[in-house]
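Might you be able to review the protein record set out just below?
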Amino acid sequence: MNSSAANSLKLGICGLGTVGGGTLALLENNGAEISLRTGLPIEVIAVASRSLQPGSLPHIANTGTDPFAVANDPDVDVVIETIGGFDPAFEVVKQALSNGKHVITANKALIAERGGELISIAATNNVILAFESAVAGGIPIIKALREGLAANKINWLAGIINGTGNFILSEMAAKQRQFVDVLLEAQELGYAEADPTFDVEGIDAAHKLTIMASIAFGIPLQFEKTYIEGISQVSPEDIIYAKELGYTIKHLGIARLLEAGVEIRVHPTLISNKNLLASVNGVSNAILVNGNAVGSTLYSGPGAGAEATASSVVADVIDIARYQTAGMEKPVIPALGYLKHHENVPVLKIENIRSEYYLRIFAKDKVGVMANISSILQRHEISIEAVIQKEAISENVPIVILTHNTLEKQLNGAIAEIEQLDDVSESIARIRLEAFDDEGGS
């Protein structure tokens, strides 16, 4: 950091979209309060954005369209990266860290997929790579996992960590609407992108879950081993049948520490209507974390938006300012919470997890079909907890089954065999069911 920084903290912002613009506004609006919290004046001296118009920020000395100019500016102490994506964000962050500058990023994909490399560069240069805003918007879940719950062994965490998906499922449940219709509305309202794949197929949530799991369990970032399943195949009928059985369908990110390894998975999930997450609707986010000392704690709030995400970005700015005010020579808190990761903790493949399951089977309305299905499940050592047989539609009838806890690999075999029956007319819908408790089991 440059010598002039002893009297102030000078920031450069790369990207002036929703998050970058919100961050600049928050720093300006709350600047006096922030300085009182840190004892250090904080000022934005450089901004780069490809859409920046000449003269639009006359109060900022250095403006332009080149983010590398900010990363290389000798007067900038902290680079805030809100460009998004990998190119040029990765190289900008890498360059800034290599130049001995602290970096704050809201880029969950960058941290989940390339974070290990960037954290190593930050450590080599004794600077901070901060990313509170990369997960769950305005909810300080990174700080909670890394600091507030540091005395605990985390058993499991489960969260609604994508507002777009939660809005869609909430609307489908409240108004019995089809997925495609609600998705179109979400796009019109600005909740979903023109290409909604990252949100509705679970990739965005998987990036966030990868980061949380690493901090919670002290394991390396392993996005490539995270199981991902989206919500596009959830039907209004599934939501109705689940409700009849006392459950709500939510798109959850679930991470659990077991003797055999760690589960890291994103998928639609049946949860009891009594579970705290079941009442979280709209674009809100919420995360349940279970620690062996504290039990279960809930963190909820806005998971996206200019002000909410900017709140987390500026919280990281304040931490860095306090670090500088204290005259500390290198960061005290590891980026992922552990100075040394647990060795040889495998991430379990989805076929090796255990769960209860919801199955919806569309079968011919004739005698003996249910007996055949039950026989196949029994051969695969899968026991049935509940069955609902709905009114026939044409010649077919929907059969809804809840299973007891079973190994997914066994269920896969049973489903494949049931789908071969002549009387089963469609692919079987399968949704995992989770009953979270203080022991972390399900």
